[in-house]
Each structure stands twice: as C-alpha cells, then as structure tokens.
Amino acid sequence: MVDVQTVSIAIASASVVAGVVYYALQLRHQSKIREIDSIIRMSVSYNLSLIEWQQAALKVMNLQFKDYDDFVKKYGSLVAETPTIMAVHTLSNYSEAVGYLLKRKLVSINYVWDVFGPTAILIWEKLKPLIEGLRKGFNSPTIYEPFEYLYNEMKKREQQIAKAK
After folding, report:
1. Based on the number of CB atoms within 10 Å of its own CB, is 14 exposed (0-12), middle (13-18) or buried (19 or more)?
2. Out of 51, 61, 138, 154, which residue is the most buried by the measure of CB atoms under 10 Å away?
3. pTM of the entire structure?
C-alpha cells in the first residue's frame, strides 16, 4: 500500500525533474534569442538598414574589375570617400563582424546561413581580389580574416546542403 509520504516524495521528485527540463528548454530558447540579438545589435551599431545593405550589395556585385590594380584604376583608392568605396567597406566590414560572431561561436552557422545564404559567398568572391590587394599593400595578412572565416564556413555549409539533397 502506498502511503502519503511516498506519494509526496514522488510528486516532489517529478516537480524537480519538470523544473530541470523547463530550465533546459529556456536555456536553449535564450541561446536562439542571443543569436538573433547579436545580428540585430550589430546592424544597429553599424547604423545599417536592410535597404542600405541591399543597395551596397547591388553596387558591389555590379562592379567590373579584374584585380586590385584594375579596381583602383576604375574606381579609385580603397581609402577614398566615394559611394562605391563606401559600399565596398559597408559589405566587407559587416561581413567581418558576422564572421567574428561566427568564429567566437556567438551565432551558429545554421542561423547565419538562414539569414545570408550564399550571398556571403558571392560577396567574398567578388571582394577577394581587393582584400588580397589590401593585405599585400599594408603588409598585413590578417586584414578581414573573420570575413574570410565566414566565407570558408559558408562554403562548408553550402557543400553540406548540396550533399543532403
């Protein structure tokens, strides 16, 4: 026969287990919110709207150049304050920041892929000759390293998706 004390112990134990499960689910939910919050805060800190980002992306993707020297010849130095140069820096600096968050594991590759998809890959591939030129010109091989990290991780994710299909 089951007495009152045994029933109360069972209820208390079940309550503790339910509390632990609830807490674990809340932690998981908070982690997802942190990812979203990181990207949004970064956008705000860069004072960058979605429209501005899209305008910069369109401007950069429509640029025609073969290499760093050809770019400088056609569009000017990367330290000039022209709309074209500002678009290049807008995309590269923002991608740098996303790469930093990804590298530090503050956002997941799945979340970044869902937000940017292959666009981050296209942007890196377009700007790679410029970044290589900057690295060489300033004798600094680590310029835009987190941006390159973002590219490499996005390429891996793209390949995983292709294999899954």
Report:
1. exposed
2. 154
3. 0.73
